[in-house]
Amino acid sequence: MSALHIPHVRSHNVAAHSFLWLKFRCPAARNVLIRTIRQITVCAMFQTFEDLSDPSCGAPHAALLRAELTRRGLDGFLIPRADAHQGEYVPPHDCRLQWLTGFTGSAGMAAVLGRDAAIFVDGRYTIQVRDQVDMSVFPAQHLVNEPVTDWLATHLQPGQKLGIDAMLHTVREVRRLEDVCREAGAELVKLSDNPLDAVWEDRPEPPLGAVELYPTINSGKDATQKIAEIQEILRGKKADACVLTQPDSIAWLFNIRGSDVGHTPLPLSFATLPADGKPALHIDGRKLSNSVRDSLSELTDIVEPSAFMSGLETLGKTGASVLIDPSLAGVGIADAITAAGGSLIEAQDPILLPKAVKNTVELEGARAAHIRDAAAYINFLCWFDEEAPKGNLDEIGAAEKLEDFRRQTGALKDISFDTISGAGPNGAICHYRVSRSSNLKIPVGKPYLIDSGGQYIDGTTDITRTLAVGSMTDEMKRHYTLVLKGHIAISTAKFPAGTTGAQLDTLARIDLWKAGLDFDHGTGHGVGVYLGVHEGPQRIAKTGTQPLEAGMILSNEPGYYPTGEYGIRLENLEIVTEPRDIPGGERPMHGFETITLVPMDLRLIDGALLTKAERDWLNTYHARVYDSIGPLVGEKERAWLENATRAI
User: Fold this and answer.
1) How far is the C-alpha of 306 from the C-alpha of 287, rounded, in Å?
2) Is beta strand 592-594 parallel, antiparallel or unpaired with respect to 559-560?
3) Pseudo-torsion of CA 564, 565, 570, 571, nearest 10°?
4) How far apart are CA 83 and CA 168, in angstroms?
5) How many CB atoms lie within 10 A of CB 134?
6) Which of 190, 303, 502, 524 has its CA 20 to 30 A from that of 405?
7) How many CB atoms lie within 10 A of CB 434?
8) Are 405 and 451 in contact (CB under 8 A)?
9) Distance between terminal CA atoms of the chain?
């Protein structure tokens, strides 16, 4: 484990920081420490580059957990990368999978039995997991192709008891687990507490990020109106109430933002919303200033999280029909309602779709944020083209400089995720997180991949560019151009109402498929407005079942990653447009409006592989980039941009 490095720390704080470092040796606890110190340092970065993973923790931590399971009379336990909100963004307090195994990815699960164990990750993390986890303790399995249920079916023995934390597994997931346990002759035991927490000695405290009101000038709709609209949806579904578990849904509904998780302005909380009457917001009161409490009290009853489960029981005792999302709500929530006499209506979180379909104010804010972000990004690209060919620039230096250019806008609230700064073989790791131990010099003669974004009060950005450093081989240009062709196919797609992301996903892959290539992640995810950079239910992927609607924002990011060599990904954000008539057509068609305004790297394009229509798209896009962003940057940067957007 490397020594703690904190940039820009005042010298008189060094002794105190050293003492705290001795106290917080656990990677998750260290992350809390780093975030706390960042608040009191001068010009500290939003991103840190410490090693958060320790593969050596697997064996001793698994032993501690097994001993606790034996004490409780359990034969096994499942540890998901999840908290009670079932969201992607998990605070250090709930990073149980990381504490147990060392794995820091955003999706995964571990299974621990008496003698056997395994970790399950999806295709984004097949390389990362082998670097971060002791494979002799937790052999890696593919989360989709070799799911935990298949593993349990071959490892569970009759009479065994498999434990789960009832708040960390969804209703839908538990049904599958119950089926596999039944078939194996085993028993699934739903626990109200977590045995791992009992042996996690230096577990960080729960976050207490301050809550702020989100102005109507940015949200486009006040919270009272939103509550009324969601209540109308509930009445239409014959539901007496719904339980909200997703912090981004709650933030959107009440027009609030928080700071409980890294890079995403979420206030961790639960809420119950009746079809008629005042909702209840279960949130730690220490997060609320007097003024915020006063404003929220006009909308909702503010209740401590400790009273959440008893509130569900009270609701159940009235015989209420309660809507829950079975793919998002922990089974403990469902059980509390039904055990008390209530009934369940299983349906999608009623806020997901209204939140995903942005209003005109939100869309204008997103466009403004992307223009601001593009100017900062082009300043970075101009600087990068001067520095990278010298051979001294590394992954951390590039990430820090890009964040600095975004900070210079004066509007940056945070980055929207840890910048993926991948040089050479690190670029082939889809969700690579650069650390001080993995940091590479950016080599001359290979593409460099950088995926990053900013959080602004009016919008969330997410952009990936793959950049040429020195001369590129014909093969590199071919791979880049095949990815670009898929990107253009999505950007120019026309599709009728009711089309899903799964139906569009093939467009991004077809040219790669023809060449025998592919990528192991979705083509696009939804994006929020000063909320999560990953937002559902919309997505462009093989599993994208939600019909796309006008006003949704999605990413468009096909890629290709030859293992151990380099990575290529090209990402813009797109707004789904209103259906429009097509000359000679019979039906109006949706399309996409590209709101990311940063050039593609012409040095990596093999023009012979582009059709005339694709070349026209690229030239038109680049002309728009120059016209929109050229006036916002300095003379040197404008000259660079003019060359970078020249017609081909």
Assistant:
1) 15
2) unpaired
3) 30
4) 6
5) 18
6) 524
7) 23
8) no
9) 49
Q: Dmax of the chain from CA atoms?
A: 74
Give the CA count within 13 Å in the CB-facing half-sphere of 9. 18
Domain assignments of the chain as residue spans, ordered by start = 62-199, 212-348, 357-643
* DSSP state string for 396-439: HHHHHHHHHHHHTTS---EESS--EEEEGGGGGSTT----TTT-
Nearest of 70, 388, 45, 20 to residue 199 by alpha carbon: 70
Nearest residue to 68 (alpha-carbon basis) of 100, 26, 25: 100
Output the 3-class SS for 596-613: CCCCCCHHHCCHHHCCHH
3-state secondary structure of 156: coil
CATH topology of domain 212-348: Creatine Amidinohydrolase; Chain A, domain 1 (3.40.350)
Q: What is the pLDDT of residues 477-504, one digit of tens each?
A: 999 999 999 999 999 999 999 999 999 9
Give φ, ψ of 141 to 5 degrees. Answer: -125, 155
Task: Give the pTM.
Answer: 0.90
State phi, psi for 285 to the nearest 5 degrees: -60, -20
DSSP per-residue string spanning 180-245: HHHHHT-EEEEESS-HHHHH-TTPPPPP-PPPEEPPHHHHSS-HHHHHHHHHHHHHHTT-SEEEE-
Distance between CA atoms of 423 and 357, rounded to whole angstroms? 36
CA distances from 606 to 285, 476, 603, 615, 646 (A): 58, 9, 8, 11, 15
Go through 483-497 and write b for each residue having 16 or more CB atoms within 10 A of its CB, e for each that does not.
bbbbbbbbbebbbee
Are 505 and 522 a contacting pair, CB within 8 Å? yes
CB atoms within 10 A of CB 150: 13
Q: Which residues of 66-105 are buried (b: 16+ CB within 10 A; e: fewer)?
A: bebbeeeebbbbbbbbbbbbbbbbbbbbbbbbbbbbbbbb
The DSSP secondary structure of 430-466, one letter per residue, reads TT----TTT--B--TTS-EEEEE-EEETTEE--EEEE
Residue by residue, DSSP assigns 7-73 as: TT--GGGHHHHHHHHHH--SHHHHHHHHHHHHHHSTT--S--------GGGHHHHHHHHHHHHHHHT
**Chain segment 320-364, per-residue pLDDT in tens:** 999 999 999 999 999 999 999 999 999 999 999 999 999 999 999
Say whether 212-348 and 62-199 share the same fold. Answer: yes
Distance separating alpha carbons of residues 496 and 564, to the nearest angstrom: 41
- Rounded CA-CA distance 373/304 in Å is 38
- Cross-sheet strand order for the sheet of 301-303: 301-303, 280-282, 270-274, 241-244, 321-324, 343-346
Task: Domain 62-199: state its class.
Answer: alpha beta
State the pLDDT confidence band at 625, using cuts at 50, 70 and 90.
very high
Between CA 297 and CA 267 the distance in angstroms is 16
* CA–CA dist 414, 389 (Å, integer): 29
Distance CA 122, CA 393 (A): 31
What's the confidence (pLDDT) of residue 43? 56
Looking at domain 357-643, its CATH superfamily turns out to be Creatinase/methionine aminopeptidase superfamily (3.90.230.10)
What is the token pair recorded at 605?
A: 């394009």
> How do residues 115-161 score in pLDDT, each as one tens digit?
999 999 987 888 888 989 999 999 999 888 889 999 999 999 999 99
